[in-house]
Amino acid sequence: MAHRSRNALRSSPAAVRPDNFLSRGQQLAFLGQGPPTGSQGSELLNLAREAIFILNNDGAIIFWNRGAEQLYGWSPPEATGRCPTELLKTELPRPAAQIENILRSETYWDGELRQTTKHEQRVTVASRWALWRDESDRICGRFQLDTDITRRKQIENELRVLSGRLLSLRDEERRRLARDLHDSVGQLLAGAAMNLTMVERKLPFPDPGSLQCLKSLASLLEQSVKEVRTMSYLLHPPLLDEVGLPSALEWYISGFSERSQIKVELDLPQDLGRFRHDVELALFRIVQETLTNVHRHSESPTAKVTLSKSPSQVRLKVEDCGKGMDLPLNHADSEERPVLGVGISGMRERVRNLGGQMQIRSGSWGTVVEILLPIAEGKPSLSPGDEAS
Length: 389
Known about the structure:
There is one protein chain. The chain has helices at 24-30, 40-46, 66-72, 76-79, 84-87, 96-105, 150-202, 208-235, 238-242, 245-260, 277-298, 342-353, and strands at 51-56, 61-64, 109-116, 122-133, 139-148, 263-267, 302-309, 313-320, 357-363, 366-374. The chain is of the alpha+beta class. It has 3 domains: 13-148, 2-Layer Sandwich (Beta-Lactamase); 151-236; 239-389, Heat Shock Protein 90 (2-Layer Sandwich), CATH 3.30.565.10. The strands form 2 sheets. The chain has a 5-stranded antiparallel sheet, with helices on both faces. Strands 6-7-8-10-9 form a 5-stranded mixed sheet, covered by helices on one side. A hairpin with a 2-residue loop joins strand 9 (357-363) and strand 10 (366-374). It is elongated.
């Protein structure tokens, strides 16, 4: 997901101006009179492993370093004067006009691009764009730095497939354990309770102490049956398979509120319908994990679960009014706020494996977890903001 960075160069606006490391003659070369050949500035840029190129205001390449030649295959004379998005058949994560608007207000823009080399190979790059400005703050061109992350993305995809398989195995094991608990332990306890009732009836004249003991034992057996049934349903709720997600969520949230004493509001549309099994299971598990975090960490007396859908995606939002949590870029007060843990990592993997997005916002006002999952062709899109990834 493309995003804007605000910190690294914000304190030094001149860092994206060519006068930091080029002479006036070299600046003129960068800003429209041809690439700087044989200059100290161009030699410095040629030392970089990354692909670096400069565009003039017409969008044409005026400088192309050796890193760009090694990555993309075109020599400087072949690339000079060409439009990079056409030359590289660039797939932008958002419209070019939006990126241009960001560059006019921000120091730079970061994003992942899909490009094509001279030999028709597709590569993925982490790209940073910045505007060149002169001393009067006039825009003179654009700087672009591309880092090849193709191999890293391949490894990430392989790990994602492995993670998805592990999640599937875990869900299958939960289903098996739930069935075993219900069919074996649950039935044994129910049988013991019935036998105890028969023993109680056959005792001719039980003394008060023995009768009280039998009643206490019957109560314990009844409580054990309920606990085993609850544990079995939490491992894999049968309602999820039989009647769908809304009924399963209503059952779980009702039980959660009773056990935790946290008032949870559930907001579901009447026409929600059914989704694919993997989508329904992922949404149910995410609600389980987020409400468990609310109970363990947030100290919030209330929570709200909202589920909605559009033709292409389903949106889940879980929010509380607790003390918040530390996000990856904010470690302040870490002793007082819980940090992102294994449970949230598991949620993130479920979302990624289904091609969705996950966003977490947190502060002293509480925490909001928002999930988007596709239910039709096309990729879901969150409203502008940073994704917790």
